[in-house]
C-alpha cells in the first residue's frame, strides 16, 4: 500500500473539532491554575485570556490579544483544547495565535476591533475560527469568511443572559422562517439579511446552520446554561460567570452538569444548590450604547 | 435492535444519525436507568476528560462495566477509544478499562495537526475509508487477543477485542456507513 496522503486544516477537520466540543462548556481562564480548575470541573475547552470580559469592561481602553506567554502557560497546564481571542479584523494577531498552536481562534467582539469594516479572511488559516453573531445574516457572513463555529454574542461580562437569549431566538426563528420560504423568495431574503445565497439555501434545506452554534455572553448559572441548551444551542461558553463567582470550582462543575442534563429539571435542581453567590450582574439598559460589545462586527 | 449512545458530551447525535441510516433504533444515555434494555452501546467522540468526569459524577462507570462484562458490545470512537483502553500513556485519567491496549492521547499533536486521510481497512472491503482524525489518539501497544484492523502511517488506529470495537478516527463525521455496519453485523449480531 502506498503511504497515505494526510490533509491538514481541511474544512471537515476544522468543523470537526467544534462537533467534538458539542454538549460541553468552554470556560474563560486567565492563569494555568484557573485552567486546571476548569479542566477538573469537566470543561471541554478553555479560552486563554489576559482578563475576563467583566474586567475588560471595567478597565476600558483598548483590549488586545493576550500576551503569548500567558497563552503558552495555559496550553502547558491542560490537555483539553485551548482557544484564544484575536481582535476583529486583526489577522496578524490570528497569525501569531496560529503559530503558537492554539486549537481555535475566537475573532471576538470582547476585544477592541482592529478593523471597522472587515473581518479576518479565515479561510486562509489552518487553525479553525469561532465568531459571534446576533442574527442569521451575521452568522452566514462569518461562515462565508471561514468561521467553522458560531456563537451568540450576548452581552459579554454582564452576567445577564437576556442578550444571549435574544440572539439565539433570533437565529433559530430566522432559520425556521427561511425553511418555509418558496425558492423564488430566497435570493431576495439573502439580500435582505446580507447573507451569501448558497449558505442561505443550505440553511433552508437542512434547517440548521452548516456549523456548530454555541451560546455565549452573559451565562452565569447552571439554569442559564440549561436555558440556552433548551433554546437549541449546541454548547456553552462561560466568560466571567465562573471566576467572578464566589465558588468557581463548584459553579464550574455545576454548569458542566447542567449542560449535559439540560432537560432534566430534577437534576438541575440538585446541582443548582449551595453554589454560593453568582457573579454580580449588569442591567443592559445601564450600559451606554458605545460600550455595548455586541454591536462590534460588520 | 436498540443501541444506546452515551450522550454526556460530544458528537452523539452524529452517531445516532448514522445508526438511524443503518436502520437501527437508538437511545441517548445520560444516567444509569437509561441503560436498561439496550443491546449495545456507542461511546462517541468528544473531550475524553469531560466524558470521564461526567461518567463518574453520574455513576455510569460501574453499570457500563457490569453490562460489558455480561457481554454487551461497545463501539468507541476517539474519546470513546480512550474511555475503553486499559492504559493511557502519561495519564492517570480514569477509564472504563475494557480493552487490553495502551493509548497515547493527542498523539498527533494539537488541532493544527488534525487531518483526514484514506485508510485501508481490510474488514470493510477494498474501497479506501476516508478517516477524520481530530486531536486524535493512537494505540501504542496491544496485548494478545486484540485484532488490529487498521493502521495509519504505521500507527494502530482501529482494533477489536471480543465484543469491543474502537477507532482513533471519527466514523460519525462521514457519510460512510461501513464502520457502523461492521459493528452491527459482525459484533452486535
UniProtKB/TrEMBL annotation, chain A:
The active site is at residue 85. Residues 11-216 form the PdxS/SNZ N-terminal domain. It comes from the Bacteria. InterPro entries: Aldolase_TIM, PdxS/SNZ, PdxS/SNZ_N, RibuloseP-bd_barrel. SUPFAM superfamilies: Ribulose-phoshate binding barrel (SSF51366). GO terms for molecular function: pyridoxal 5'-phosphate synthase (glutamine hydrolysing) activity. Pfam families: SOR_SNZ (PF01680). Keywords: Lyase, Pyridoxal phosphate, Schiff base. Catalyzes the formation of pyridoxal 5'-phosphate from ribose 5-phosphate (RBP), glyceraldehyde 3-phosphate (G3P) and ammonia. The ammonia is provided by the PdxT subunit. Can also use ribulose 5-phosphate and dihydroxyacetone phosphate as substrates, resulting from enzyme-catalyzed isomerization of RBP and G3P, respectively. This is Pyridoxal 5'-phosphate synthase subunit PdxS. The lineage of its organism: Bacteria, Bacillati, Bacillota, Clostridia, Eubacteriales.
UniProtKB/TrEMBL annotation, chain B:
Keywords: Glutamine amidotransferase, Hydrolase, Lyase, Pyridoxal phosphate, Transferase. GO terms for biological process: L-glutamine catabolic process; pyridoxal phosphate biosynthetic process; pyridoxine metabolic process. GO terms for cellular component: cytosol; glutaminase complex. The active site is at residues 78, 170, 172. The keyword Hydrolase applies. L-glutamine binds at residues 46-48, 105, 134-135. Its EC number is 4.3.3.6, 3.5.1.2. It comes from the Bacteria. InterPro entries: Class_I_gatase-like, PdxT/SNO, PdxT/SNO_CS. GO terms for molecular function: glutaminase activity; pyridoxal 5'-phosphate synthase (glutamine hydrolysing) activity; transferase activity. It catalyses: aldehydo-D-ribose 5-phosphate + D-glyceraldehyde 3-phosphate + L-glutamine = pyridoxal 5'-phosphate + L-glutamate + phosphate + 3 H2O + H(+); L-glutamine + H2O = L-glutamate + NH4(+). CDD domains: GATase1_PB. Pathway: Cofactor biosynthesis; pyridoxal 5'-phosphate biosynthesis. Belongs to the glutaminase PdxT/SNO family. PANTHER family: PYRIDOXAL 5'-PHOSPHATE SYNTHASE SUBUNIT SNO, PYRIDOXAL 5'-PHOSPHATE SYNTHASE SUBUNIT SNO1-RELATED. Catalyzes the hydrolysis of glutamine to glutamate and ammonia as part of the biosynthesis of pyridoxal 5'-phosphate. The resulting ammonia molecule is channeled to the active site of PdxS. In the presence of PdxS, forms a dodecamer of heterodimers. Only shows activity in the heterodimer. This is Pyridoxal 5'-phosphate synthase subunit PdxT. The lineage of its organism: Bacteria, Bacillati, Bacillota, Clostridia, Eubacteriales. The gene is pdxT.
Amino acid at each position: 500500500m502506498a503511504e497515505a496522503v494526510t490533509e491538514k486544516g481541511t474544512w471537515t477537520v476544522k468543523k470537526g473539532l467544534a462537533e467534538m466540543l458539542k454538549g460541553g462548556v468552554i470556560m474563560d481562564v486567565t492563569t494555568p491554575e484557573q485552567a486546571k480548575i476548569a479542566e477538573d470541573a469537566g470543561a471541554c475547552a478553555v479560552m486563554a485570556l489576559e482578563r475576563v470580559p467583566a474586567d475588560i469592561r471595567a478597565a476600558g481602553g483598548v483590549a488586545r490579544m493576550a500576551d503569548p506567554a500567558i497563552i503558552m502557560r495555559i496550553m502547558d497546564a491542560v490537555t483539553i483544547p485551548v482557544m484564544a481571542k484575536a481582535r476583529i479584523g486583526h489577522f496578524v494577531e490570528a497569525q501569531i495565535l496560529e503559530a503558537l498552536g492554539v486549537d481555535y481562534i475566537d475573532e471576538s467582539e470582547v476585544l477592541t476591533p482592529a478593523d471597522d469594516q472587515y473581518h479576518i479572511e479565515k479561510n486562509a488559516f489552518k487553525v479553525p475560527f469561532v465568531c459571534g453573531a446576533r442574527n442569521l445574516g451575521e452568522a452566514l457572513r462569518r461562515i462565508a469568511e471561514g468561521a467553522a463555529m458560531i456563537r451568540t454574542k450576548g452581552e459579554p461580562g454582564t452576567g445577564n443572559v437576556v442578550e444571549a437569549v435574544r440572539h439565539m431566538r433570533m437565529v433559530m426563528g430566522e432559520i425556521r422562517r427561511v425553511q418555509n420560504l418558496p425558492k423564488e423568495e430566497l435570493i431576495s431574503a439573502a439580500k435582505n439579511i446580507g447573507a451569501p445565497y448558497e449558505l442561505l439555501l443550505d440553511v433552508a434545506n437542512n434547517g440548521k446552520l452548516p456549523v456548530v452554534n454555541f451560546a455565549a455572553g452573559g451565562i452565569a448559572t447552571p439554569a442559564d446554561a440549561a436555558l440556552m441548551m433548551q433554546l437549541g444551542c449546541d454548547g456553552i461558553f462561560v466568560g466571567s460567570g465562573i471566576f467572578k463567582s464566589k465558588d468557581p470550582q463548584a459553579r464550574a462543575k455545576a454548569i458542566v452538569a447542567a449542560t449535559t442534563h439540560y432537560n432534566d429539571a430534577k437534576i438541575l435542581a440538585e446541582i443548582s444548590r449551595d453554589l454560593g453567590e453568582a457573579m454580580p450582574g449588569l442591567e443592559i439598559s445601564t450600559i451606554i450604547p458605545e460600550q455595548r460589545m455586541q454591536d462590534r462586527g460588520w | 435492535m436498540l443501541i444506546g449512545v452515551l450522550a454526556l458530551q460530544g458528537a452523539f447525535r452524529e452517531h445516532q444519525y448514522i445508526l438511524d441510516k443503518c436502520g437501527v433504533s437508538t437511545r441517548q444515555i445520560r444516567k444509569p436507568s437509561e441503560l436498561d434494555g439496550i443491546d449495545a452501546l456507542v461511546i462517541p467522540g468528544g473531550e475524553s476528560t469531560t466524558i470521564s468526569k461526567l461518567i463518574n459524577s453520574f455513576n455510569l462507570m460501574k453499570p457500563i462495566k457490569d453490562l460489558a462484562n455480561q457481554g454487551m458490545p461497545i463501539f468507541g470512537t476517539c474519546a470513546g477509544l480512550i474511555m475503553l483502553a486499559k492504559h493511557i500513556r502519561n495519564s492517570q485519567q480514569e477509564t472504563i478499562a475494557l480493552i487490553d491496549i495502551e493509548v497515547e492521547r493527542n498523539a498527533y499533536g494539537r488541532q493544527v495537526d488534525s487531518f483526514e486521510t484514506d485508510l485501508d481497512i481490510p474488514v470493510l472491503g477494498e474501497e479506501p475509508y476516508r478517516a477524520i482524525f481530530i486531536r486524535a489518539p493512537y494505540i501504542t501497544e496491544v496485548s494478545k487477543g486484540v485484532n488490529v484492523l487498521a493502521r495509519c502511517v504505521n500507527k494502530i488506529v482501529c482494533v477489536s477485542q471480543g465484543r469491543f470495537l474502537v477507532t482513533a478516527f471519527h466514523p460519525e463525521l462521514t457519510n460512510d456507513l461501513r464502520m457502523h455496519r461492521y459493528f452491527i453485523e459482525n459484533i452486535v449480531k
